[in-house]
Amino acid sequence: MARTFCILIILFTALCGSEQFWFSYKIVTLNGLSIFEEKNITQTMTRLPQGEEKLCTILLPQDAMLSQEQVLRKYFDIILPCFYPLSTHVLANHDSHPNVYNDRVELVIAPVRFTVVFKDEFATINAFR
To answer: For residue range 3-39, what is the model confidence (pLDDT) as tens digits?
Structure first.
């Protein structure tokens, strides 16, 4: 029963899954040290009929043994700057008390759907608005 259910999920993902991805990012630093980081890249199950906006083209070799999602996860730090121009929020909180100074900075990139087109050794990232 469990095996049939797993095969059904894999089959449904292969048939209904799209080449669109979902991206979000959050990092929190306290006094210059990273205390929390959340990276999200996942494949979406539905397609959006909205227009695309080109974010960037970067040198990103695609390994034939890896899926697109695995390549994106592997090179996350390289593609992260492409998403900075989108809905990026920076929250800063500075507290100072006698003998104590806390500087907390939070960077949040709101969730966005995007596609990646690999051509030769380059990847073009397009976001949906």
So the answer is: 776 676 665 555 444 578 999 999 999 988 999 999 9
58 CB-contact burial (10 Å; exposed 0-12 / middle 13-18 / buried 19+): middle
41, 22 Cβ separation under 8 angstroms: yes
Contact (Cβ atoms closer than 8 angstroms) between residue 123 and residue 19: no
Per-residue tokens: 129: 């608005």
How far apart (Å, rounded) are the C-alpha atoms in residues 109 and 18? 22
pTM equals 0.74
Q: How many CB atoms lie within 10 A of CB 106?
A: 15
